[in-house]
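Quick review question:
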């Protein structure tokens, strides 16, 4: 293992020297792909809202970096666990595509809904989002 890389992962992640040396090639590639992921923002933009108590408007959004960290100062939708939960599987696909240098907007599922089922199914409201990536 390259000594500079080993020092970096020890400093950034707090690994012991033994942990750093035990990283698989896959783990090293994930870490090395961080700059390409930071070059993008993942946008979850409201495209439809019905009966949500937060009163989102079309165009409100969550913004995160390509590694999945929210950028609160760029979010216009209140933090809501029910709204954010469905982004998890899509975020893994985007993370993987960015790590491999692929177009992050090439994923098949680019729309999602919050986990509230809506008033017709015993819930309170529901919000639909479009998910896309933009250069940071």
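Suggested answer, residue by residue:
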């Amino acid at each position: 293992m390259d000594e500079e890389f080993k020092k970096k992962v020890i400093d950034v992640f707090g690994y012991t020297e033994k942990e750093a040396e035990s990283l698989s090639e896959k783990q090293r590639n994930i870490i090395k792909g961080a700059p390409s992921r930071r070059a993008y923002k993942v946008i979850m933009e409201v495209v439809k809202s019905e009966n949500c108590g937060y009163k989102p408007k079309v165009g409100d959004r969550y913004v995160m970096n390509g590694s999945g960290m929210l950028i609160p100062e760029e979010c216009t939708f209140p933090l809501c666990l029910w709204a954010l939960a469905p982004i998890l599987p899509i975020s893994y696909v985007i993370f993987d595509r960015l790590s491999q240098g692929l177009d992050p907007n090439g994923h098949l599922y680019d729309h999602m809904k919050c986990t509230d089922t809506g008033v017709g199914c015993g819930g309170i409201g529901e919000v639909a989002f479009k998910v896309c990536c933009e250069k940071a």
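Why it works: The radius of gyration is 18 Å. The first strand starts at residue 40 and ends at 50.
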